[in-house]
Write a structure and sequence with these properties.
Elements: E1 9-10, E2 14-22, E3 26-33, E4 38-45, H1 55-67, E5 77-83, E6 86-92, E7 97-98, H2 99-106, H3 111-130, E8 143-145, E9 151-153, H4 158-162, H5 183-186, H6 193-209, H7 219-228, H8 234-237, H9 243-252, H10 264-275, H11 285-288, H12 297-308, H13 310-337
Antiparallel strand pairs: 1-2, 2-3, 3-4, 4-6, 5-6, 7-8, 8-9
C-alpha cells in the first residue's frame, strides 16, 4: 500500500517522492512541499489505527502542541492534516539515520559517542517537559542521528494522539513500545517526565551494551519484567562501561519514578558531567543517590553569612535613623515656637 502512494499528492501540496521507512504506527515518505519548494518528511499514519471517530480531535490537539516545540534537538513539525481520511504530519527532513538502525549496523556504540547522543536527546526531551509535553514512546527508532552527530527526537504528539484509539487497551495511558516503556506505563498508570527518563535509560543501556535490559518479544512478559525484575548491571555486559555510568543507568531504571532523575534535563546534566574534560572516574554520590530533600547545610551557611554582615546593617540603619530624627528636630522647634502655648517660650 505504501509503495502505491509514491507520486501521490497530499492536500494538494505535498508530493510523495519515495518511501523512507515503515513502522508500527506510520509510513514515512520523503516529499516535496510544492508551495515552498522544499524537501520534507511526511509521516502518514496507518489507516487501521485511526478508525475511531474521536481520534480526529485528539490528533489535532496533540499535533498543535507538538508543532509549538522549537528546539535544535527536536524534529520540527511544519504542518499536519487529513487527506481522504489519511492523517499525516509534515516534518523537517533530517539527513542520517535513526539510532536503532545505527545499533543494528554496529551492535553497540562507544561510551563517549553514546553520551553525546543521549545528552542531546535529553536536551530536546527536557525542553518538551518544560513545555508540559511527555513523549510517551521514546525508543531508538525515534532518535535521529545526523552524520555530524547532531541528534533530534521525532514523534512528539503521535504516541499521545494514538493512545486512546484502541478499545482493547485497559487504560488510555498504556502506549509505547514494550521494550522501552516505564513500569508505571506497564501498570496502566499515567506517564510523567520520569517515564520518559526511564525510556532514555533503556536506550542508554542498549546503546552501550548492545542488548536490552529486559529482552523478549511478548508484550505482557516484557511488562512484567519492567514491573518486577531488577535490571542487570551494564558493566556485567560490557566491562568497558565506567562505574559512574553504570550507577547512573541503574538509577534511571529504578521501578519507582521518584527514585529516578525527575526530568530529562536533570539526567542530561549528569551525563554532561561524565563527558566533560577531566571528569573523574565517578560522580559525586549526591548525583547517583535517589533524589532527596535538600540538606539544611546551605540554609545554615546562608544564616551564618547573614549574621556576619548583621552588625554593619544595624550600624547603617541606626545612622539613617539618627539623620532622620536630627533633620526633623529643627522643623519641630520652629513649629512649636509659633504657638504661645509652646513650653519652650
Amino acid at each position: 500500500m505504501s509503495e502505491s502512494l509514491v507520486g501521490a499528492t497530499l492536500a494538494g501540496r505535498y508530493q510523495l517522492l519515495s518511501r523512507l521507512g515503515t513502522g508500527g504506527m506510520a509510513h514515512v515518505f520523503q516529499a516535496r512541499d510544492l508551495n515552498l519548494q522544499r524537501m520534507v518528511a511526511i509521516k502518514l499514519l496507518r489507516e487501521n489505527l485511526i478508525s475511531d471517530p474521536s481520534f480526529h480531535a485528539r490528533f489535532l490537539q496533540e499535533a498543535r502542541a507538538a508543532a509549538n516545540l522549537s528546539h535544535p534537538n527536536i524534529v520540527t513539525i511544519h504542518d499536519f492534516g487529513v487527506d481522504a481520511h489519511q492523517y499525516f504530519f509534515v516534518m523537517e527532513l533530517v539527513s542520517g539515520t535513526d539510532l536503532k538502525t545505527l545499533l543494528r549496523r554496529r551492535q553497540r556504540l562507544g561510551v563517549q559517542e553514546t553520551l553525546g547522543i543521549i545528552t542531546q536527546a535529553c536536551a530536546g526531551v527536557g525542553y518538551a517537559h518544560r513545555a508540559g509535553l511527555i513523549h510517551c514512546d521514546l525508543k531508538p527508532q525515534n532518535i535521529l542521528v545526523a552524520p555530524d552527530g547532531r541528534t533530534k527526537i521525532a514523534d512528539f504528539g503521535i504516541a499521545r494522539a494514538l493512545s486512546t484509539i484502541d478499545p482493547l487497551e485497559t487504560s488510555e495511558y498504556v502506549w509505547g513500545s514494550p521494550q522501552y516503556f516505564a513500569p508505571e506505563q506497564a501498570a496502566g498508570g499515567p506517564p510523567s517526565p520520569a517515564s520518559d527518563v526511564y525510556s532514555l535509560g533503556v536506550i542508554l543501556f542498549e546503546a552501550v551494551t548492545g542488548r536490552l535490559p529486559f529482552p523478549g518479544e511478548d508484550a505482557s512478559a516484557l511488562a512484567e519484567q519492567h514491573l518486577r525484575a531488577a535490571p542487570p548491571s551494564p558493566r556485567s555486559v560490557n566491562p568497558a562501561i565506567p562505574p559512574a555510568l553504570d550507577q547512573v543507568i541503574l538509577k534511571v531504571l529504578s521501578k519507582e519514578p521518584a527514585a529516578r532523575y525527575r526530568t530529562a534535563d536533570q539526567l542530561g546534566r549528569v551525563l554532561s558531567g561524565l563527558t566533560s574534560p577531566g571528569a573523574g572516574p565517578s560522580l559525586p554520590a549526591a548525583f547517583l543517590a535517589p533524589p532527596a530533600t535538600p540538606p539544611e547545610a546551605p540554609t545554615t551557611a546562608l544564616a551564618a553569612t547573614t549574621a556576619e554582615g548583621l552588625d554593619w546593617l544595624a550600624i547603617g540603619l541606626g545612622l539613617l535613623a539618627f539623620l532622620a530624627v536630627g533633620g526633623l528636630l529643627p522643623l519641630w522647634l520652629w513649629a512649636c515656637l509659633r504657638y504661645p502655648a509652646c513650653p519652650l517660650t
